[in-house]
Amino acid sequence: MNREEAKEWIxxxxxxxxxxxxxxxxxxxxxxxxxxQTYQKYAALKFDVDPYNEEFENYLEKIEEQSLNICEKCGxxxxxxxxxxxxxxxxxxxxxxxxxxx
Length: 102
Description:
- 34% of the residues lie in helices and 27% in strands.
- By secondary structure, the chain is an alpha+beta fold.
- The protein has one domain (3-74).
- Helix 1 packs antiparallel against helix 2.
- The radius of gyration is 13 Å and the shape is elongated.
- It starts with a helix and ends with a strand.
């Protein structure tokens, strides 16, 4: 999966709010590694990378933590909400009256 495919998938499934995080991952991707999948799970932005690289996996964990504070729809400050029985990171405007998770 290349950068544009990853960004298009996240934009389609989550919104535009995390696109800068996708760029940061691709900007720091080790030369011998490739992104095999990018997705949202438990309100966080996640990446699968091959081959496994412990140092880069630690970096990806920091990206995931950052995504939990950024609205996936617009990029504003976000919080975790349950929306339509799924966990999302959203700002109040995009929370769709979801249930706030502390």
